[in-house]
Design brief:
Strand content: 15-25%
Strand order of the largest sheet: 9-8-10-11-7-12
Order of helices and strands: EEHHEEHHEEHEHEHHEEHEHEH
Structural class: alpha/beta
Distance between the termini: 60 Å
Number of strands: 12
Helix content: 40-55%
Length: 351
């Protein structure tokens, strides 16, 4: 425990059979870190109160936590983790607090014995490059990073805003910097152009850049810009539409296929069979946003069915609760999913 703790426990009066009320005081040794932990105008503590329904009252380098015993222990784990992050030279933003809260709540589901609760520490998977360290913000992101570490082929599927592509590119950059792979290949189907790139204006880079921009953005976030440019020029980093993958064997490479829901069955099979010796492959996509012509089956949907249970293949499914963008994005995703479910049920009844 990084903070010194004083605690008292008393029966909760308002909700009889639920659980006991809990109160304790955390005191952090470093005043500057404590100030950063609490946030400007105590915004981090306010977020903690809002998400966990606890009361967090700061005083100097201490904070008094009161509320439901489960929620207060989740708050303690979150604050303990974030303080340790500051001690290690990291920073704490609101998004980090949100992530710590999600992981603290998820940790309770993994605890088998009540006696383990007080000893439990948050452990979040992370990806480190020279420019940036990314820490998992949801249990699913944590599972995704762990899957990339142990499996040769990983599928990350789910709604936008869950970090599927961003984490995949970050992991590929980490492998490249550590010398675990010799190159990175980033690809996505240019379905908006029907992959008839010859009809688009400009040279090849100008033709494909609009479709591959999200991959570029993630890459520049992980590595210094000049290093990315040199790597692209040298062919160490290759960003190309899926149509350019045919006939190749990608050995010693980290290969990412983004927007895979827009691949055909033939394209997906072609891509997956490009995996070479010492290669890693990550496929990301959202099966609810298929832009293929009506009646054409998504290669991603088919692959998830065919490869179920195949050794060396991991599938991580993200949900709306894993959206790490603006909270409104998660609400939008849920609204669309609800409407889709209603339409599916209506179509089923009409048959």
């Amino acid at each position: 425990m990084n903070g010194h703790e004083l605690m008292t426990t008393s029966p909760r009066q308002s909700k009889p059979p639920a659980t006991d009320a809990n109160h304790f005081v955390l005191t952090f040794e470093n005043n500057r870190y404590a100030s950063e932990l609490f946030g400007q105008f105590d915004q981090n503590l306010k977020l903690l109160e809002q998400r966990l329904q606890v009361e967090a009252r700061p005083r100097g380098n201490s904070v008094s936590i009161s509320g439901d015993i489960v929620a207060t222990n989740q708050a303690r784990r979150a604050l303990d983790y974030l303080y340790g992050r500051l001690q290690s030279g990291g920073s704490v933003e609101l998004s980090d607090v949100e992530g710590a809260i999600r992981m603290a709540v998820a940790a309770d589901d993994q605890l088998l014995l009540p006696t383990m609760e007080r000893k439990a520490k948050l452990t979040m998977s992370q990806i480190s490059t020279r420019k940036k360290t990314i820490v998992a913000r949801t249990p699913t992101q944590d599972a995704y990073i762990r899957a990339m570490e142990r499996s040769e082929l990983v599928f990350g599927v789910g709604p936008a805003g869950t970090g599927k592509t961003y984490l995949a590119v970050a992991y590929a950059a980490q492998l490249l910097e550590r010398g675990a792979v010799d190159r990175i290949v980033l690809s996505r189907p240019a379905v908006e152009a029907g992959e008839r790139l010859g009809f688009l204006p400009g040279d090849m880079k100008e033709k494909v850049d609009p479709y591959l921009r999200p991959l570029y953005d993630a890459l520049y976030d992980m590595m210094p810009g000049d290093k990315v440019e040199r790597a692209i020029t040298a062919g160490v980093i290759e960003i190309a539409p899926l149509a350019f993958m045919r006939g190749r064997t990608l050995a010693n490479a980290a290969v990412i296929l983004d927007e895979a829901q827009n691949t055909t069955s033939m394209q997906m099979k072609m891509f997956l069979t490009r995996l070479g010796e010492n290669g890693r492959m990550i496929v990301t996509g959202d099966p609810s946003q298929i832009d293929l012509p009506r009646g054409m089956k998504s290669g991603l949907v088919e692959a998830l069915q065919i490869l179920r249970g195949v050794e060396g293949v991991s599938v991580v499914r993200f949900k709306d609760v894993d959206v790490v963008r603006h909270p409104m994005v998660a609400r939008i995703v849920r609204a669309y999913e609800s409407q889709s479910a209603v339409q599916d049920e209506s179509e089923h009844m009409d048959r």
